Amino acid sequence: MKAVHMKQKLVISVLAGIMMIPGSAITANAADSSTDMPSAVPVAGIESVLTDCYENNVKQNIHLYLVKTEEGEYLNRAFSNTGDGYAYIRNAPDEKSDWIGKLYGNSTVTVLEYNKDWAKIQSGNAEGYVPVNVLYLGEEAQKHAAEYEKYQATVTADVLNVRAGQGTDTQVLTQVTLNQQYQITGKPSKGWYPIQVGEIAGWVSGEYINIEKIYSYAETKAEEEERLAREAAQKAAEEAKAAEAAMIQSQSSAGQAVIDYACQFIGNPYVWGGTSLTEGADCSGFVQSVYANFGISLPRTTWDMESVGVPVSYEEAMPGDIVLYDGHVGLYMGDGNIVNAMNEEDGIGICSATYTNIITIRRVL
Rounded distance, CA 117 to CA 218, Å? Predict the structure, then answer.
Protein backbone atom coordinates (compact mmCIF):
# COMPACT_ATOMS: atom_id res chain seq x y z
CA MET A 1 0.00 0.00 0.00
CA LYS A 2 0.97 3.61 -0.33
CA ALA A 3 2.35 5.52 2.61
CA VAL A 4 -0.06 6.22 5.42
CA HIS A 5 -1.14 9.84 5.66
CA MET A 6 -2.32 10.93 9.09
CA LYS A 7 -4.51 14.03 9.42
CA GLN A 8 -4.40 15.85 12.76
CA LYS A 9 -5.86 19.12 14.00
CA LEU A 10 -3.68 21.93 15.20
CA VAL A 11 -5.34 23.64 18.16
CA ILE A 12 -4.09 27.23 18.49
CA SER A 13 -5.25 29.95 20.82
CA VAL A 14 -5.64 33.21 18.96
CA LEU A 15 -6.33 36.71 20.17
CA ALA A 16 -6.12 39.84 18.02
CA GLY A 17 -3.59 38.31 15.62
CA ILE A 18 -1.41 36.87 18.42
CA MET A 19 -0.71 33.10 18.66
CA MET A 20 -0.07 32.05 22.24
CA ILE A 21 2.84 29.71 22.94
CA PRO A 22 3.37 28.78 26.59
CA GLY A 23 5.93 31.17 27.99
CA SER A 24 6.01 33.45 24.94
CA ALA A 25 3.98 35.61 22.57
CA ILE A 26 4.69 35.76 18.84
CA THR A 27 3.03 37.97 16.25
CA ALA A 28 1.84 35.76 13.35
CA ASN A 29 2.17 37.18 9.83
CA ALA A 30 2.80 34.26 7.39
CA ALA A 31 2.55 30.44 7.20
CA ASP A 32 4.78 27.89 5.43
CA SER A 33 4.47 24.33 6.60
CA SER A 34 7.65 22.53 7.58
CA THR A 35 8.57 19.42 5.68
CA ASP A 36 8.86 17.65 9.03
CA MET A 37 5.32 18.19 10.22
CA PRO A 38 1.73 17.99 8.95
CA SER A 39 0.15 21.04 7.31
CA ALA A 40 -1.53 23.27 9.84
CA VAL A 41 -5.26 23.84 9.69
CA PRO A 42 -5.94 27.52 8.81
CA VAL A 43 -6.86 29.54 11.91
CA ALA A 44 -9.72 32.04 11.74
CA GLY A 45 -8.50 35.63 12.03
CA ILE A 46 -4.94 34.85 10.94
CA GLU A 47 -4.12 35.42 7.30
CA SER A 48 -0.56 34.05 7.51
CA VAL A 49 2.04 32.69 9.92
CA LEU A 50 5.79 33.24 9.72
CA THR A 51 7.98 30.33 8.69
CA ASP A 52 10.28 30.76 11.66
CA CYS A 53 7.27 30.63 13.96
CA TYR A 54 6.73 27.00 12.97
CA GLU A 55 10.38 26.10 12.74
CA ASN A 56 11.43 27.57 16.10
CA ASN A 57 8.38 27.69 18.36
CA VAL A 58 5.38 25.62 17.28
CA LYS A 59 7.60 22.77 16.18
CA GLN A 60 9.34 22.67 19.54
CA ASN A 61 6.02 22.63 21.39
CA ILE A 62 3.99 20.62 18.87
CA HIS A 63 2.83 18.09 21.45
CA LEU A 64 0.76 20.87 23.05
CA TYR A 65 -1.24 21.56 19.91
CA LEU A 66 -1.79 18.24 18.11
CA VAL A 67 -4.96 16.45 19.14
CA LYS A 68 -6.55 13.40 17.57
CA THR A 69 -9.28 14.08 15.01
CA GLU A 70 -12.80 12.82 15.59
CA GLU A 71 -12.19 10.16 12.96
CA GLY A 72 -8.98 8.98 14.56
CA GLU A 73 -5.96 7.99 12.54
CA TYR A 74 -6.99 6.93 9.03
CA LEU A 75 -5.40 5.88 5.80
CA ASN A 76 -6.07 8.04 2.78
CA ARG A 77 -6.54 4.75 0.92
CA ALA A 78 -9.77 3.01 1.84
CA PHE A 79 -11.82 0.15 0.45
CA SER A 80 -15.47 -0.34 -0.34
CA ASN A 81 -17.61 -2.24 2.14
CA THR A 82 -20.70 -2.82 0.02
CA GLY A 83 -20.71 -6.61 -0.22
CA ASP A 84 -22.11 -7.83 -3.52
CA GLY A 85 -23.97 -4.57 -4.10
CA TYR A 86 -22.85 -0.99 -4.58
CA ALA A 87 -23.14 2.45 -3.07
CA TYR A 88 -23.99 5.58 -5.01
CA ILE A 89 -21.30 8.24 -5.25
CA ARG A 90 -23.14 11.55 -4.97
CA ASN A 91 -22.24 15.10 -5.91
CA ALA A 92 -23.00 16.35 -2.37
CA PRO A 93 -23.06 14.79 1.11
CA ASP A 94 -26.79 14.22 0.94
CA GLU A 95 -28.87 11.15 0.09
CA LYS A 96 -31.12 13.31 -2.09
CA SER A 97 -28.29 14.69 -4.21
CA ASP A 98 -27.62 13.42 -7.73
CA TRP A 99 -25.45 10.34 -8.11
CA ILE A 100 -22.42 10.58 -10.36
CA GLY A 101 -21.05 7.07 -10.02
CA LYS A 102 -21.22 3.70 -8.29
CA LEU A 103 -18.83 2.23 -5.75
CA TYR A 104 -18.81 -1.55 -6.12
CA GLY A 105 -17.69 -4.13 -3.61
CA ASN A 106 -14.21 -4.54 -5.10
CA SER A 107 -13.31 -0.85 -5.27
CA THR A 108 -10.38 1.11 -3.87
CA VAL A 109 -10.75 4.80 -3.02
CA THR A 110 -8.69 7.75 -1.88
CA VAL A 111 -10.35 9.67 0.94
CA LEU A 112 -10.13 13.40 0.27
CA GLU A 113 -12.02 14.73 3.28
CA TYR A 114 -14.74 13.98 5.81
CA ASN A 115 -18.07 15.74 6.18
CA LYS A 116 -19.81 14.34 9.27
CA ASP A 117 -21.15 10.93 8.22
CA TRP A 118 -19.93 11.35 4.66
CA ALA A 119 -16.53 11.01 3.03
CA LYS A 120 -15.45 12.72 -0.15
CA ILE A 121 -13.58 10.18 -2.24
CA GLN A 122 -11.71 9.79 -5.51
CA SER A 123 -11.92 6.39 -7.16
CA GLY A 124 -10.88 6.11 -10.78
CA ASN A 125 -12.62 8.94 -12.61
CA ALA A 126 -15.34 9.25 -9.99
CA GLU A 127 -15.07 11.98 -7.35
CA GLY A 128 -17.90 12.59 -4.91
CA TYR A 129 -19.44 11.65 -1.59
CA VAL A 130 -20.34 8.32 -0.02
CA PRO A 131 -21.53 7.45 3.49
CA VAL A 132 -18.60 6.64 5.76
CA ASN A 133 -20.19 3.33 6.70
CA VAL A 134 -19.67 1.91 3.19
CA LEU A 135 -15.89 2.15 3.56
CA TYR A 136 -13.20 0.23 5.35
CA LEU A 137 -11.01 2.92 6.93
CA GLY A 138 -7.86 3.09 8.99
CA GLU A 139 -6.99 -0.18 10.71
CA GLU A 140 -9.95 -1.89 9.03
CA ALA A 141 -8.59 -0.79 5.66
CA GLN A 142 -5.20 -2.25 6.52
CA LYS A 143 -6.85 -5.45 7.68
CA HIS A 144 -8.82 -5.89 4.43
CA ALA A 145 -6.21 -4.48 2.01
CA ALA A 146 -5.06 -7.88 0.73
CA GLU A 147 -8.61 -8.65 -0.44
CA TYR A 148 -8.51 -5.69 -2.83
CA GLU A 149 -4.92 -5.76 -4.03
CA LYS A 150 -4.17 -7.52 -7.30
CA TYR A 151 -0.87 -7.95 -9.09
CA GLN A 152 -0.25 -7.61 -12.80
CA ALA A 153 2.67 -9.05 -14.74
CA THR A 154 4.07 -7.20 -17.77
CA VAL A 155 6.23 -9.35 -20.05
CA THR A 156 9.76 -7.98 -20.55
CA ALA A 157 11.06 -10.69 -22.91
CA ASP A 158 10.40 -10.80 -26.64
CA VAL A 159 8.87 -14.25 -26.18
CA LEU A 160 8.20 -15.88 -22.82
CA ASN A 161 7.20 -19.50 -22.25
CA VAL A 162 4.19 -20.19 -20.07
CA ARG A 163 4.88 -23.53 -18.42
CA ALA A 164 2.89 -26.17 -16.58
CA GLY A 165 5.01 -25.80 -13.43
CA GLN A 166 7.81 -23.92 -11.72
CA GLY A 167 10.87 -24.69 -13.76
CA THR A 168 12.29 -24.82 -17.26
CA ASP A 169 11.99 -28.60 -17.24
CA THR A 170 8.17 -28.43 -17.21
CA GLN A 171 5.90 -28.50 -20.27
CA VAL A 172 5.48 -25.33 -22.36
CA LEU A 173 1.72 -24.64 -22.57
CA THR A 174 1.82 -21.46 -24.65
CA GLN A 175 3.90 -18.32 -25.18
CA VAL A 176 3.37 -14.63 -24.41
CA THR A 177 5.19 -11.67 -25.92
CA LEU A 178 6.79 -8.36 -25.01
CA ASN A 179 4.63 -5.83 -23.11
CA GLN A 180 1.61 -8.12 -22.85
CA GLN A 181 -0.04 -7.92 -19.43
CA TYR A 182 -1.61 -10.68 -17.37
CA GLN A 183 -3.04 -10.83 -13.88
CA ILE A 184 -1.06 -12.88 -11.40
CA THR A 185 -3.54 -15.43 -10.09
CA GLY A 186 -1.84 -16.68 -6.95
CA LYS A 187 1.27 -16.71 -4.79
CA PRO A 188 4.70 -17.06 -6.41
CA SER A 189 6.74 -20.20 -5.90
CA LYS A 190 10.47 -20.61 -6.39
CA GLY A 191 10.65 -17.37 -8.38
CA TRP A 192 7.77 -18.38 -10.68
CA TYR A 193 4.39 -16.66 -10.93
CA PRO A 194 1.01 -18.14 -11.88
CA ILE A 195 -0.88 -16.32 -14.66
CA GLN A 196 -3.97 -16.92 -16.77
CA VAL A 197 -3.63 -16.69 -20.55
CA GLY A 198 -7.08 -17.11 -22.03
CA GLU A 199 -8.16 -20.61 -21.03
CA ILE A 200 -4.63 -21.60 -20.09
CA ALA A 201 -3.36 -21.44 -16.50
CA GLY A 202 0.40 -21.64 -16.23
CA TRP A 203 3.61 -20.29 -14.73
CA VAL A 204 6.17 -17.74 -15.91
CA SER A 205 9.63 -16.93 -14.62
CA GLY A 206 9.83 -13.82 -12.46
CA GLU A 207 13.07 -12.87 -14.25
CA TYR A 208 11.15 -11.86 -17.36
CA ILE A 209 8.20 -9.91 -15.97
CA ASN A 210 7.63 -6.61 -14.20
CA ILE A 211 5.13 -6.84 -11.36
CA GLU A 212 2.75 -4.01 -10.51
CA LYS A 213 0.12 -3.76 -7.80
CA ILE A 214 -3.25 -2.80 -9.27
CA TYR A 215 -6.71 -2.00 -7.92
CA SER A 216 -10.28 -1.86 -9.13
CA TYR A 217 -12.06 1.46 -8.98
CA ALA A 218 -15.54 2.94 -8.99
CA GLU A 219 -17.44 3.63 -12.17
CA THR A 220 -18.88 6.98 -13.23
CA LYS A 221 -22.40 7.22 -14.57
CA ALA A 222 -21.02 7.88 -18.06
CA GLU A 223 -18.65 4.91 -17.81
CA GLU A 224 -21.51 2.68 -16.70
CA GLU A 225 -23.62 3.81 -19.67
CA GLU A 226 -20.74 3.09 -22.05
CA ARG A 227 -20.13 -0.32 -20.46
CA LEU A 228 -23.80 -1.27 -20.62
CA ALA A 229 -23.93 -0.19 -24.27
CA ARG A 230 -20.84 -2.30 -25.04
CA GLU A 231 -22.28 -5.28 -23.19
CA ALA A 232 -25.60 -4.93 -25.00
CA ALA A 233 -23.83 -4.73 -28.37
CA GLN A 234 -21.67 -7.72 -27.49
CA LYS A 235 -24.71 -9.69 -26.35
CA ALA A 236 -26.55 -8.80 -29.56
CA ALA A 237 -23.54 -9.85 -31.62
CA GLU A 238 -23.25 -13.13 -29.72
CA GLU A 239 -26.97 -13.79 -30.16
CA ALA A 240 -26.72 -13.03 -33.88
CA LYS A 241 -23.71 -15.30 -34.15
CA ALA A 242 -25.53 -18.06 -32.28
CA ALA A 243 -28.59 -17.62 -34.51
CA GLU A 244 -26.40 -17.77 -37.58
CA ALA A 245 -24.67 -20.89 -36.29
CA ALA A 246 -28.05 -22.47 -35.57
CA MET A 247 -29.26 -21.57 -39.05
CA ILE A 248 -26.11 -22.99 -40.62
CA GLN A 249 -26.48 -26.12 -38.55
CA SER A 250 -30.07 -26.42 -39.68
CA GLN A 251 -29.09 -25.83 -43.30
CA SER A 252 -26.27 -28.32 -42.99
CA SER A 253 -28.60 -30.95 -41.58
CA ALA A 254 -31.18 -30.28 -44.29
CA GLY A 255 -28.47 -30.26 -46.96
CA GLN A 256 -27.05 -33.53 -45.70
CA ALA A 257 -30.51 -35.05 -45.98
CA VAL A 258 -30.59 -33.97 -49.64
CA ILE A 259 -27.20 -35.59 -50.25
CA ASP A 260 -28.16 -38.77 -48.44
CA TYR A 261 -31.23 -39.04 -50.66
CA ALA A 262 -29.31 -38.26 -53.87
CA CYS A 263 -26.63 -40.84 -53.16
CA GLN A 264 -29.22 -43.62 -53.23
CA PHE A 265 -29.24 -43.27 -57.02
CA ILE A 266 -25.49 -43.53 -57.64
CA GLY A 267 -24.89 -45.98 -60.45
CA ASN A 268 -28.21 -45.32 -62.20
CA PRO A 269 -28.04 -44.28 -65.85
CA TYR A 270 -27.50 -40.88 -67.40
CA VAL A 271 -30.20 -40.04 -69.99
CA TRP A 272 -30.12 -36.80 -71.96
CA GLY A 273 -33.33 -34.89 -71.25
CA GLY A 274 -34.35 -37.41 -68.58
CA THR A 275 -35.67 -36.62 -65.09
CA SER A 276 -36.08 -40.10 -63.63
CA LEU A 277 -33.78 -40.89 -60.72
CA THR A 278 -34.17 -44.59 -61.44
CA GLU A 279 -34.64 -44.87 -65.20
CA GLY A 280 -32.24 -42.09 -66.12
CA ALA A 281 -31.70 -38.33 -65.85
CA ASP A 282 -29.35 -35.71 -67.20
CA CYS A 283 -27.43 -33.36 -64.85
CA SER A 284 -30.17 -30.72 -64.39
CA GLY A 285 -32.95 -33.34 -64.38
CA PHE A 286 -31.11 -35.19 -61.58
CA VAL A 287 -30.77 -32.06 -59.41
CA GLN A 288 -34.34 -30.97 -60.15
CA SER A 289 -35.78 -34.37 -59.24
CA VAL A 290 -33.75 -34.70 -56.05
CA TYR A 291 -34.97 -31.33 -54.76
CA ALA A 292 -38.55 -32.08 -55.87
CA ASN A 293 -38.53 -34.87 -53.27
CA PHE A 294 -38.10 -32.14 -50.60
CA GLY A 295 -40.86 -29.94 -52.00
CA ILE A 296 -38.52 -27.46 -53.68
CA SER A 297 -39.23 -26.61 -57.32
CA LEU A 298 -36.20 -25.80 -59.46
CA PRO A 299 -35.91 -24.71 -63.13
CA ARG A 300 -35.25 -27.37 -65.70
CA THR A 301 -32.03 -26.03 -67.23
CA THR A 302 -28.61 -25.27 -65.80
CA TRP A 303 -28.74 -21.73 -67.14
CA ASP A 304 -31.94 -20.98 -65.22
CA MET A 305 -30.57 -22.65 -62.09
CA GLU A 306 -27.77 -20.08 -62.01
CA SER A 307 -30.15 -17.53 -60.50
CA VAL A 308 -32.00 -19.62 -57.88
CA GLY A 309 -31.52 -19.23 -54.12
CA VAL A 310 -28.60 -17.19 -52.83
CA PRO A 311 -24.98 -17.29 -53.98
CA VAL A 312 -22.27 -18.64 -51.68
CA SER A 313 -18.54 -18.96 -52.14
CA TYR A 314 -16.77 -22.27 -52.57
CA GLU A 315 -15.28 -21.80 -49.07
CA GLU A 316 -18.80 -21.41 -47.65
CA ALA A 317 -20.30 -24.35 -49.58
CA MET A 318 -22.24 -26.91 -47.56
CA PRO A 319 -23.80 -30.27 -48.42
CA GLY A 320 -26.85 -29.77 -50.62
CA ASP A 321 -25.65 -26.59 -52.34
CA ILE A 322 -26.03 -26.53 -56.12
CA VAL A 323 -22.72 -26.22 -57.99
CA LEU A 324 -23.04 -24.86 -61.51
CA TYR A 325 -20.55 -25.03 -64.36
CA ASP A 326 -20.72 -24.10 -68.02
CA GLY A 327 -23.52 -26.42 -69.12
CA HIS A 328 -23.38 -28.71 -66.08
CA VAL A 329 -24.67 -28.91 -62.51
CA GLY A 330 -24.16 -31.12 -59.45
CA LEU A 331 -24.92 -31.27 -55.72
CA TYR A 332 -22.12 -30.43 -53.31
CA MET A 333 -21.44 -33.29 -50.91
CA GLY A 334 -18.72 -31.70 -48.79
CA ASP A 335 -15.01 -32.56 -48.74
CA GLY A 336 -14.59 -31.08 -52.23
CA ASN A 337 -16.89 -33.52 -54.04
CA ILE A 338 -20.21 -33.43 -55.91
CA VAL A 339 -22.78 -36.09 -56.73
CA ASN A 340 -24.11 -35.60 -60.27
CA ALA A 341 -25.37 -37.19 -63.42
CA MET A 342 -22.05 -37.13 -65.24
CA ASN A 343 -22.41 -38.68 -68.69
CA GLU A 344 -23.73 -41.76 -70.48
CA GLU A 345 -20.56 -43.72 -69.71
CA ASP A 346 -20.38 -42.99 -65.98
CA GLY A 347 -24.05 -42.39 -65.16
CA ILE A 348 -24.89 -40.90 -61.75
CA GLY A 349 -21.74 -40.75 -59.65
CA ILE A 350 -19.26 -38.71 -57.62
CA CYS A 351 -16.44 -36.48 -58.84
CA SER A 352 -14.33 -33.52 -57.71
CA ALA A 353 -16.24 -30.25 -57.32
CA THR A 354 -13.32 -28.46 -58.95
CA TYR A 355 -12.91 -30.72 -61.97
CA THR A 356 -13.52 -27.59 -64.06
CA ASN A 357 -14.24 -23.91 -63.46
CA ILE A 358 -17.20 -23.16 -61.21
CA ILE A 359 -19.57 -20.45 -62.46
CA THR A 360 -21.62 -20.11 -59.26
CA ILE A 361 -22.77 -22.02 -56.17
CA ARG A 362 -26.40 -21.55 -55.08
CA ARG A 363 -28.05 -22.35 -51.76
CA VAL A 364 -31.79 -23.02 -51.90
CA LEU A 365 -32.41 -24.45 -48.41
Answer: 20
Other Cβ atoms closer than 10 A to 353: 23
Q: What is the pLDDT along the chain (365 residues), one digit of tens a residue?
A: 333 333 333 333 333 333 333 333 333 322 223 334 334 444 444 444 444 444 444 334 433 333 333 444 345 899 999 999 999 999 999 999 999 999 999 999 999 999 899 999 999 999 999 999 999 998 899 899 889 989 999 999 999 999 999 999 999 999 999 999 999 999 999 999 999 999 999 999 999 999 999 999 999 999 999 999 999 999 999 999 999 999 888 888 999 999 999 999 999 999 999 999 999 999 999 999 999 999 999 999 999 999 999 999 999 999 999 999 999 999 999 999 999 999 999 999 999 999 999 999 999 99
Beta bridge partners of 196: 201
Rounded to 5 degrees, φ, ψ at 234 are: -65, -40
Q: Can you list the alpha helix ranges (DSSP code H) found in 85-220?
A: 138-148
Q: How far apart are CA 186 and CA 302, in angstroms?
A: 65
Polymer length of the chain: 365
Model confidence pTM above 0.85: no
Helical H runs in the chain? 51-53, 138-148, 221-262, 283-292, 302-305
d(CA 275, CA 272): 9
